[in-house]
Amino acid sequence: MTGVTVEQERAAAVPAGPGTTELSMREAVNRALHTVLGEDPTTLVFGEDVGRLGGVFRVTDGLQRAYGEDRVFDTPIAESGIIGVAVGLAMNGFRPIPELQFDGFCYPAVDQIVSQMARMHYRTRGTAAMPITVRLPSFGGIQAPEHHGESLEALFAHVPGLKVAAPSTPDDAYHLLLQSVRADDPVVYMEPKARYWERGPVALEENRATPIGSSRIARHGRHATLIAWGAMVQRCLQVAELAAEDGVELEVLDLRWLKPIDADGLVSSVARTRRAVVVHEAPLTAGLGAEVSALITERAFRDLAAPVQRVTGFDVCYPAGPSNRSTCPRSTASCSRCNGRWSSDDHGPTHLRTARPR
Amino acid sequence: MTGVTVEQERAAAVPAGPGTTELSMREAVNRALHTVLGEDPTTLVFGEDVGRLGGVFRVTDGLQRAYGEDRVFDTPIAESGIIGVAVGLAMNGFRPIPELQFDGFCYPAVDQIVSQMARMHYRTRGTAAMPITVRLPSFGGIQAPEHHGESLEALFAHVPGLKVAAPSTPDDAYHLLLQSVRADDPVVYMEPKARYWERGPVALEENRATPIGSSRIARHGRHATLIAWGAMVQRCLQVAELAAEDGVELEVLDLRWLKPIDADGLVSSVARTRRAVVVHEAPLTAGLGAEVSALITERAFRDLAAPVQRVTGFDVCYPAGPSNRSTCPRSTASCSRCNGRWSSDDHGPTHLRTARPR
Amino acid sequence: MQTNEGPAAGAGLPALDDLAPDLSCAFYRDMLTARLLDTEAIALQRQGVFPAYVSLRGQEAAQVGSAAALDRERDFVFPTYREMAVALTLGVDMVGYLASHRALWHGGLYDPMASRFGAVNAVVGGPVPHAVGWAMGERLAGRRGCAISYFGDGASSEGDVHEAMNLAGVFHVPVVFFCQNNQWALSVPNERQIAGGSVAARAAGYGMPGTAVDGNDAAAVYRATREALERARSGGGPTLIEAVTYRVEPHSTSDDTTRYRKAAEERAWRERDPITRLRAAMRAAGHAGDGFFERAEREARATAEQVRDGVSAAPEPAGEDLFGYVYREPTGELARQRRVWQEEVLP
Amino acid sequence: MQTNEGPAAGAGLPALDDLAPDLSCAFYRDMLTARLLDTEAIALQRQGVFPAYVSLRGQEAAQVGSAAALDRERDFVFPTYREMAVALTLGVDMVGYLASHRALWHGGLYDPMASRFGAVNAVVGGPVPHAVGWAMGERLAGRRGCAISYFGDGASSEGDVHEAMNLAGVFHVPVVFFCQNNQWALSVPNERQIAGGSVAARAAGYGMPGTAVDGNDAAAVYRATREALERARSGGGPTLIEAVTYRVEPHSTSDDTTRYRKAAEERAWRERDPITRLRAAMRAAGHAGDGFFERAEREARATAEQVRDGVSAAPEPAGEDLFGYVYREPTGELARQRRVWQEEVLP
Ligand SMILES: Cc1ncc(C[n+]2csc(CCOP(=O)(O)OP(=O)(O)O)c2C)c(N)n1
Ligand SMILES: Cc1ncc(C[n+]2csc(CCOP(=O)(O)OP(=O)(O)O)c2C)c(N)n1
Ligand SMILES: [Mg+2]
Ligand SMILES: [Mg+2]
User: Closest Cα partner for A192 from A155, A151, A144, A133?
Assistant: First the structure.
């Protein structure tokens, strides 16, 4: 590994300094929940084990004590019911922030998410707002049991009526969650579990003006654009660091809003770099990488010096621990087609390996 | 409209003649169910209203009478339970063919489909086979109430462990269903409701050798490839017919297997035509068209004279009747970018309009 | 298998003793109006104005009796697709309601929030947890409204209904679960739908009162609902009511009942018609006479015809609405798609 | 809110009167082996061999007592993730079972079909309808096996459990729903989980027998399960058993109970330990003496150590298995991806 530390890299995105506070991502989410619970009495936090326990990841720690059992409460184990209740609460003027405990346990709630939450505003011709933010600890990389490492962004991004966010830094975790809760549309807010413990500066006081649907250039470069979200952004930054040693300057675009997607941001980056690689943990086939690839190809075909590559999880069921360590997507070959050949030495806990020049 | 009739066009795919029988698609599906129930005593047909009523589309008509209430039966309204029961039956040596009544009502079963049916073979290291075929009347175009016009192929195609079929002709409906039921893996079998009543020749006796995952060239052409499945194949054939009057020869590729996708078939068609348009009813964003586009771009980039275009439903909730008639995807502009400009005059019941040269 | 132990629907005359004549007259007017409107709607389907229609015929007492017990200012109804008489009783704009059946807009063209009658919802079981959430909100806000969720015997098999009832019990919220057991879920009868034979019997398992009531007796339904609402309003938590009635018409205009049930069964139930029974009881109790019934008939007919003409003539919503209501805060991508639609599809 | 009306778990000594001493000895051996293996597993987690572990400590009687009633040749178990003592009693290869906790393979490395003990399943409520389907199949095939579904108090809130029970009732199939109510679902106690307070009370709503049993009394659990299985086997349909017990350990090794429950509660339940109680009852009934208990301890310890060493040393499955088990009939695309993996990831 190079000497690049996690902190240094994130610092590049949001400079530490006066006005920022060093927080882990789960602390940042917790602070954002404090902020919205404090500013808006119609906000409610509920889900499995979010109250007394403070959530299995302690993301909701202390909220029940601060805002009471009426506004922060545990529910029975009923994911469909949890979202159904959120829909009813929204119809009665509340701004619910339900948590589904893990990505893999949101499947029982898909009907309520797709057929009810996402469409109620439409069905009622705009009379019933659905300002619901579904918090969903997401993605892999924590060596957990089955169903605790799913990447569901493609499912949600396909659904009219939903918006989907997936932050990669504590600072974005904080500000994107504020935006999501304050928005009057339903948002599926996917928190990369593998990044919960990583720290970085957060501009708590700032009122971020970036609109919903904006991407972020996490690193500037000119030879190719790596496009990622969630935990994969950090991986891409590591890849870019290694590539830089080899004289290859990779741009890293943190998509962060998976619906709507920042098409302009993608196109303007690719117009400069002429090559793009989209990286995600979800299986390859019909993953969101396909959308990113198709979008770039449609809008920037003449700019592309090479086809957009996808570096993704394999089309397999998310594996158990040790096997997980040995399943990594096609980082090397795919990147190499754009950027010269690397080999890899890091079988890290997350899906995408760090690549190293050879 | 040109004088091309539905029958003539389909006849081009499977020639009528000795050894074929003229059937509607729903009759073809019914015949296939008769065949598998007759040949394999472990097959079972069940779901909501499939027994005594014979299904809301009469697709299962007569099966209960012929094979008894033990093998063809009605269930309570419990989609998750229906698939859960199918999983248990498969673990006890059966070959279940559950029906979910409509596309939009499969959402409550998504957890059982994704977390159980698709993974049980994997979870049990191959000891429990899941030879389940989930029949799902699918797609739009029948001016039905809400949730009766959903196109869910992108969701299913993303799931490791599933296979997904969507026939476009009675002949394929028959043979793909036989293949699906006889296969030892779970298949989501999407029947295009809008085509249920259309007739065509079916080679009932033939033992189709085409493997799971093969596509079909529905019409040969050399200026561009239109890629579609389900009811959109017919629309594309109509478009091709009109384009032909204009001297443009469009190839129409019926994907028919949406997982696995026939990448080789796509690449070899596009290698000839150098242009591709993928057409589907589902919303644009993160639809299966993105996968088809990305796949072609990755594997045939140097062959492409233009970016792969997507002609799809808009990113809106599937509309009610009359509005439905006026919502049509971007057929004109998209096709025109590859193939010269057409206008359209047919606000037909299905999502994609027929285009007409001007 | 157990059978339903509730009162056999349709036996004897409704008991009106404790009911003010005003109330029975109101029931009658709404039930008759719903009946005539239902008949008009079936005709509109035959004429091709509606692509399809689901009749509530035979269920007027269950719907009007329960809806009449609601507080229109405070309560909120979560319907399915067959609650036309509930909508009518609540004063919902009926042209807007029937617009859903003309396929002008899936949820209907009335204002569900102002009407306190949710949008038409086609997912069997799906809206039941919404009622629980709404009721939780009501309690949190310190208001005194109740939610009522209408669902069918078939819907009772869905997981969502169980989750909703358990949640309502755990949070002890003011919600009434109102099951119209019309004996059939499309082609499937109660025996193959409801293990144990009684939906009302499920209530005990959630620690809530459950009651089966003659769903063809408007007064009995009214009393049971009023009692449940009073309990809910005073902090007594949820109640499950099973109104035993019958779907005398096919499931929808596309359905064919000869495939799955006997004409004799339908006939027998048509004879226990809730409107006929209410009229007889009103006469017997001296609540009303010929004059009232004739006037009611005239007025109901006028309303039905007016609504029929209104819904037939209602303009189609603007095509732009397809794009306008997906989000409250529009996205650039959808604006782009709207432009494509305007340029390519609209002309 | 109602409270659980079943027998308070853990009071008095198990009654062994109608039990052959062989049987109580078998219970004891399995319970003790499970306990020692559980202790080894917790240690393995502390040592970093297991990434996490879920203890069944305190639930040995519920698991061994019910599993002992099963016919190993004919019945089939649908477990969740906490049924280690059921697996043991059924003779499942315990190294293969614990391999799941070492994260070698999610479902475990034993053969679930041959063991008649389904793969470890982490979806709360998800496997319950599988038991119903399996039991339907058994009846259709004219065989006489029964399915048993294990699930927790928390799982009882899931829609799938309701759908499964209703389906089982409607189809009248040979299945036993066995709820281990260990009072906690992670951090949530029964009062906030189970409306009405009793899972067993739900049975009546489905027209099936429901019984709450002292889950810390192996003999009582055995009797209740045997009775349910006999009824099911002779065509009497499903039964719901609620074994009232207690999860004395944290939910998993990553959990911290001090955040949500009192140490005194845990202590009180540790004192009602099912193994201690069984031993005392066996002594009192003269079923066994020091010699047996010492031998049982020795043997259990030997087994536990052997399994511990086995699972610690078990080889990782081949990486290729990631691709090999997705389908029974492989796809070209996955073969391609496997090649990519071999070339790029494996080295
Ligand atoms: C979740 C779901 N599954 C299936 C359907 C299809 N469907 C529409 S109505 C119906 C029967 C409903 O029966 P019931 O709940 O008794 O209501 P009723 O029609 O008798 O009023 C079915 C199966 C649906 N609308 N929603
Ligand atoms: C569908 C689903 N939702 C949530 C979870 C997360 N989860 C794992 S165990 C658990 C508590 C389960 O409690 P209970 O059913 O009582 O079983 P116990 O752990 O007490 O044995 C939860 C919420 C899950 N595994 N599955
Ligand atoms: Mg019904
Ligand atoms: Mg528990």
Answer: A151
Cα of C212 from ligand 3 centre, angstroms: 15
Q: Give yes or no for residue C239 having a pLDDT over 60.
A: yes
Name the residues around ion ligand 3, CB cutoff 5 A: C 152-153, 182, 185
More confident residue, B177 or D320: B177
Tens of pLDDT, residues B260-285: 999 999 999 999 999 999 999 999 99
In a domain, B328, yes or no: yes
Select from B180, B202, B224 the last residue of a domain. Answer: B202
Q: What is the pLDDT of residue B15?
A: 66
- Look at residue A353 and tell me whether its pLDDT is greater than 60: no
Q: Is residue B284 part of a domain?
A: yes
Are the beta carbons of B338 and B277 closer than 8 angstroms?
Answer: yes
Ligand 2 pocket mutation, candidates A77, A99, A111, criterion most atoms within 8 A of CB: A77
Picking from D90, D89, D87, the residue whose alpha carbon sits closest to that of residue D98 is D87
Both A65 and A95 in a single domain? yes
Does the CB atom of residue C182 touch ligand 1 within 6 A? yes
Q: In the structure, what pLDDT confidence band is assigned to residue B349 with cuts at 50, 70 and 90?
A: very low
B52 in C contact zone (CB under 8 Å): yes
Residue with the smallest CA separation from ligand 2 atom 7 is D124
Complex-level ipTM beyond the 0.90 threshold: yes
Query: Could you tell me if B38 and B131 lie in one domain?
Result: yes
* Residues in chain A closer than 8 A to B107 (CB atoms): 110-111, 114-115
Q: Which of A108, A316, A330 lies nearest to residue D344, judging by beta carbons? A: A330
Query: Within this chain, do residues A25 and A170 fall inside the same structural domain, yes or no?
Result: yes
Burial (0-12, 13-18, 19+ Cβ within 10 Å), B176: buried
At residue C343 the predicted structure's pLDDT band, cuts being 50, 70 and 90, is confident
CA dist D154 and D203 (Å) reads 16
The answer as to whether B1 is a domain residue is no
| Pairwise CA distance, residues D79 & D66, whole Å | 12
Domains in chain C: ranges and CATH:
21-316 (3.40.50.970), 319-347 (no CATH)
What are the chain B neighbours of A110 within 8 Å (beta carbons)? 107-108, 110-111
Q: Give the pLDDT mean for B70-91.
A: 98
Coil, helix or strand at residue D81: coil
A238 lies in the same domain as A273? yes
From chain A residues 262-301, the ones with a CB under 8 A of any chain C CB are 263
Query: How many folded domains does chain B comprise?
Result: 2
CATH of the domain at A244: 3.40.50.920
Structural domain of A226: 216-355
The reported pTM is 0.95
Domain boundary residue, one of B202, B234, B269: B202
CB pair distance less than 8 Å for B298 and A282: no
A13 vs A302 pLDDT, higher one: A302
Partner residue facing B327 (CB), from C125, C254, C322: C322
- Which residue spans within chain B are E strands per DSSP? 21-24, 43-47, 72-74, 95-99, 133-138, 163-165, 187-192, 199-202, 216-219, 224-228, 250-254, 257-259, 276-283, 309-313, 342-346, 354-357
**B207 found inside a domain:** no
**Based on the domain organization, do B187 and B222 belong to the same domain?**
no
Per-residue pLDDT reduced to its tens digit, C89-139: 999 999 999 999 999 999 999 999 999 999 999 999 999 999 999 999 999
Length of chain D, please? 347
Contacts of C193 in chain B (CB under 8 A): 76-77
Asked if B313 and B183 sit in the same domain, the reply is no
Cβ contact (<8 Å) for C123 and B144?
Answer: no
Same domain, A180 and A241: no
The predicted structure's pLDDT at residue A13: 55
Q: What's the confidence (pLDDT) of residue A351?
A: 30
**Looking at the CA of D159, which ligand is closest?**
2
B222 and B177 share one domain: no
CATH code assigned at A139: 3.40.50.970
Q: List, for residues A47-69, the tens digit of each pLDDT value.
A: 999 999 999 999 999 999 999 99
Q: What is the mean pLDDT of residues B40-46?
A: 98
Instruction: Specify the DSSP class assigned to residue D117.
Output: B
Tell me the CB-side half-sphere exposure of residue D131, using CA atoms within 13 A.
Answer: 38
Distance D184 CA to ligand 4 centre (A): 4
Using CA atoms, how far residue D260 sits from A34, A76, B127, D2, D257, in Å, is 21, 15, 41, 22, 6
Confidence of residue A5 (pLDDT cuts 50, 70, 90): very low
